[in-house]
Specification:
Shape: elongated
Number of helices: 10
Radius of gyration: 23 Å
Distance between the termini: 25 Å
Helix content: 55-70%
Strand content: under 5%
Number of strands: 0
Low-confidence stretches: 1-51
Amino acid sequence: MRGAKDFYQRWRRDRRAWLSGGLVAVVADVVAYLILSAGSSMSVRSAVSSIAVGDRAATRSYIAAMYAYEQAIKGDGPADQAAAHDLVGHVRSVCPSVLAGAPPNKATEEITREADLEVQHALEQPQQKPAIALAKKIEWLSWTNRELTYYVHGFAAESRATAELVAPDICVDARAVTASGFKTIPASTTRYALQNLCASSKVEVQNSPGETGELDEIIGIMLKPYELPSESALIPRRLSKLEREKKQQVDEQSLAASESEIAKALGLPKAEPPRPLSIEPTCLTPPPR
């Protein structure tokens, strides 16, 4: 969710927004009237009006939910780092250097993967409750654009699944690996890796209109036709390519530093990052056809 996980749109439910929504309905009525004047039936007018109002209502709800989420996580940087430091502190006090002398084999690679994933999980802890609240607000929304609905529902599912992940105790699993002579991978280690993969693999992105391929960016672009000027103040400015690259670099450096800390605390030797899992996720929801 994270990633996610960078993702990724906002607004308020006030009188002006509702009145603006009403304005869209009036415009839809005028369009329908013109169509009727050309000989179309009354059903065309009803369809145009209802589609416009329904899409606008869903858009209002999405922007409001995203705005509330952004406000809730604003300034969470120090809390993110504190959570990661707490995890490293746990290892240093409970199982320091438990993996010292680990050979470069599959068991070592998988316990290293678990350690890295737990660091990411710790960094995301301050956003867990806001992410679940966001998912609950947007997972029921729908638009006449089925692809947009699919992406929003997938974004909600990935956000919620990532936030609800429960990490195993890295010290318990690391001790089990050591006790087996670095030959056995604990079931909880494998399960946690698959849960993480599944949490971030619920949507199949096709023909992304954005530059990053991230769901929040795609959704933001697809919502443009339904947005109103009154909502612009609640929608964050999109980062430029240079700004996005700088932010990504800072985020990656922060993550790498925390991963290095926990690896050192566990006594893991310096090694290449774990290879991506070769298992295909079975939790993917196919896109609308």
